[in-house]
Amino acid sequence: MRASKKYWVFELILVAACCAAAPARAESLCAPNEPVVFACHVGSKMVSLCRPAGDWGMLSYRFGGVGKLELTYPEPGRQASAAFTVKSVPLVGGGETTVAFKRGVYTYTVYSKVARGSDGSTPEFEDGVIVARRGKVLSRMRCADGGEGFREPMTAVAVK
Question: d(Cα 61, Cα 30) in Å, to the nearest integer?
Fold first, then answer.
């Protein structure tokens, strides 16, 4: 019996050490005071749509890693007034909502889609971001962690 207790104590310590050593994945790239509108992991990076605190009509797009942003739109210090295009399209068994912005010749589209699955009754969910140059898709990154879709109604976003 005593050997059994030692074994369980050892196992508990080992599990605790593993959990403590594993780096926690960030939930979003939003600042602590910014509500998260959309966030997911795409490979080793993240995509997030953040709402400046207290400003229901504005958004900020962020892509990259924690402490190492690769793209922020609009750029820090610039107002996002009417910078995003929001669309919703019905699909069989669901729909798709997109939030897009243009930066030069590139278009960045964050999407959340629900559609009827291949069995005809189970819904399938897909979230991600699409990068296009002059209308040609360069990259389609699906959320590796499934995403959660948009956490707020996109009807409140100031649009072009």
Answer: 9
What distance lies between CA 93 and its chain's CA centroid? 23
pLDDT tier for residue 67 given thresholds of 50, 70 and 90: confident
| Higher local confidence (pLDDT), 131 or 18 | 131
Partners of 30 in the β-ladder: none
- Cα torsion 147, 50, 73, 28: sign: negative
d(CA 45, CA 98): 20
- The number of beta carbons lying within 10 Å of the beta carbon of residue 86 is 18
DSSP 2: H
Running DSSP on this structure, what letter comes out for residue 84? B
pTM score of the predicted model = 0.78
